[in-house]
Amino acid sequence: MRTSRRQLVTINSIDGLLESFFTGVPPDYHFETTRLQIYPIDYFRPFLRIPTPPGRASFSFLLLQRKGRGVVQINADLITMRSRGAMFVTRGSIVSLRSLHPSTSGWMIMYDDAVAARVLHPRTVERIAGLRSSIPLSADTAGWAEELCMLLAKQTAIEATAHQPVCDHLFGALVERVLAENAPASPRRVDRAESLDRQFRRLAFDNAVAEGSVGFYAERLNVSENYLLRCVSKSSGRSPKEWIIDVRLMHAQKLLRTTDATVAEIAAQSGFDDSSYFGRLFRRRFGMSPRSFRTIPGQDLSE
Question: How do residues 234-287 score in pLDDT, each as one tens digit?
């Protein structure tokens, strides 16, 4: 008899994060509700259920790791976090925490689009979206960031409302200092192909399950399908259709892990009209059938 599984949780709030990733949380566990939030990793590490199921968040966050190590899956990439490292995860990314050493400490700062729009320059937001690795921090910057995070934590308690002007400025300074550690020798201009590729992928992560036509994205981005194909393929090495299918397969992966729906139902809910075709794509991508995937604890996209 198959065990009952909880329904898929959209991680659109800290409550969604809590329900998806945590276990054994005491009743008095407290989270903030503001647009900018900061927590020490020590605060929630004892309750993390690792590996966490893949989830797509509607907020962005910055991880600052003081010590320890961990592995985070962002979309289809595995990123290793080490001592004195920083990592940005942007809204819409599909995220899974694969491992976390018990000694790990540091900070997690959650922020929404309104905070990013108020605090960060559009080019900074674009640069963050293009990061594909952890940023190593110097000892000086890591120490400075630690002090600022402690100050930011105190200030969020003071500004426990939707309006956080001091917190905004502190967060902006922190982001700029972290990015300065990863500054290129000479500023690199983001060309049209790369910019369009990033815009397409953000749209795809939001819409691919419902919208499988490349024409839908070309229309939204006000370009032709052929031009979109050339730009995305040039920048990422993959076609728009391949990205759409990958997002759908990642969505199916979550449903296999978090619901009792049949494989045919999951295929339909993930945008595949033909469950046999879905099964072939899934096996090609992950080396096993959807049913086999469902039985293996901790299996995810990176395998």
Answer: 887 789 999 899 889 888 888 887 888 999 999 999 999 999 999 999 988 777
Instruction: Judge contact between 126 and 191, C-beta under 8 A.
Output: no
d(CA 83, CA 78): 17
- CATH hierarchy code of domain 14-180: 2.60.120.280
Domain ranges for the chain, please list them.
14-180, 192-295
What are the structure tokens assigned to 63, written together?
């991880």
Distance CA 184, CA 202 (A): 24
The single-letter DSSP state of residue 160 is: -
Domain 192-295 has CATH 1.10.10.60: yes
Strands 94-100 and 70-74, sheet pairing: antiparallel
**Alpha-carbon distance 239 to 41, whole Å?**
37
Looking at the predicted structure, is the pLDDT value of residue 64 above 90?
Answer: yes
Whole-model pTM?
A: 0.61
The proportion of the chain whose per-residue pLDDT surpasses 90, expressed as a percent, equals 32
Half-sphere exposure of 166 (CA within 13 A, CB side): 13
Beta strands 36-40 and 105-111, pairing class: antiparallel
